[in-house]
Protein: UDP-N-acetylglucosamine 1-carboxyvinyltransferase
Organism: Deinococcus sonorensis KR-87
Amino acid sequence: MQLTPLHITGGRPLHGEIAVQPSKNAALPIIVASLLSPEPVTLHGIPRLSDIFTILEIVGHLGTRHAWVGPNSVTLHTPELVSTETPYALVSKMRASFIVMGALLSRAGEATVSMPGGCAFGVRPVDQHVKAFRSYGVELSEEGGNFEARRRGPLRGTYVFEMLTVGATQNAILAAVLGEGQVTLENASIDTDVVDMVNFLNSLGADIQGAGTNTIQVTGVPRLRGGEYRVIPDRIEAGTFMIAAAATRSRLTLTGVRPDHLRALSAKLLEMGVAVLEGRDSLIVDASAGRLQPTNITTVEYPGFPTDIQPQMSALLATVPGTSVVMDKVYADRLTHVVELNRMGAHIVVSEHTQVIQGGALHGAPVKAADIRAGAALVVAALAAEGETVIEGMQYVNRGYERLAERLRSIGAQAYQPEPVLAAAMD
Ligand SMILES: CC(=O)N[C@H]1[C@@H](OP(=O)(O)OP(=O)(O)OC[C@H]2O[C@@H](n3ccc(=O)[nH]c3=O)[C@H](O)[C@@H]2O)O[C@H](CO)[C@@H](O)[C@@H]1O
Ligand SMILES: C=C(OP(=O)(O)O)C(=O)O
């Protein structure tokens, strides 16, 4: 759905305090993991985002009834699965939905799931998901863009991932939670979103050891019980606000954060001359003192510098005099923000997947987001730029940021997104 553009008049400092939303990327797999229990599960810390509504639609198609029981709390109940098929129309809306395959294999022993599409920043293969499943005995075939998977008996085996992958680690864990088997995953992702999903499953009675290390062992259990769980804060949203504070040379307090999940970004900001003060669940970012230093960034898997805040960081570096170099090793082509930032006066040249950024002043311009974090980068740039920026493509930004214009206004930004004009109102 097309949304109205976001208008930001920038060049003014941010101030005050902002509460960070719960994590989208932790909440999505946890909602999928709730398919494994026949009992009701209440999740707290579910952000009201379009991606969450999409995943609720997907698990709803499979048999989950849900009810919002608080502003960010939802109860999910899947007494039985009514389908083991997730059609293209649903999977194509969101790549993360591919992990329903693991959940369906666990609960029903079979799954038919469409191949997820690519996205604006490049091809995103699922070969590691497929190899992990096959390595411990799942029969899997692909035809016409559909994967059909079946468990013939208890899952057993060890899979060594060829790279660190969050989604394939989650999928491979989910498949083995129920049943009599035992599987080991080597070179598994240690991402916070893997750990949070495992903590949730273990709280319902699963037996998963080693999450947060590169070796994870899943021992099947006959059944999971219901329960209640709180999802971790969104480190990507927090990182976006930290970067926005630096780009506007402001002092901002973030509440409801996990500072330990943000250390790679905090270290870079400190290196650039931004003060970052860690509280227990809060952070103060202070860039009001003056001149920042350029720096070089290479994204890698957690706990390294995250790809999901690379575009926003590039926007910040475009405001810092001097030369910075940015390379995304997780998604080499995550670069859709570059041409749009250059429209705002940035000087970014891309050579062999590497951004060379000559920082300076930005000015407002009409721009268009082509994906979620490119959109976030444009918001950061717009807050720092003199004059008005009008950002189109807000349907992508809204995938990951709740009530953005309103929350930006609460910290001093001049931001508004007009209400859509309904056809009926135009008669
Ligand atoms: C909904 C969600 O949580 N999305 C996040 C998740 O995506 P997602 O889980 O899809 O990303 P992965 O961690 O799987 O991808 C990491 C790298 O591995 C590659 N790969 C992955 C699987 C596979 O079978 N084969 C393969 O080659 C990918 O192309 C990429 O280069 O982690 C990414 C990396 O932190 C983040 O950018 C996404 O925001
Ligand atoms: C890329 C992202 O999400 P997805 O993996 O769902 O595309 C993201 O959250 O930055």
Remarks:
- Residues 25, 28, 95-96, 124-129, 163, 165-168, 193, 307-308, 330-331 surround uridine-diphosphate-N-acetylglucosamine (ligand 1) (CB under 6 Å).
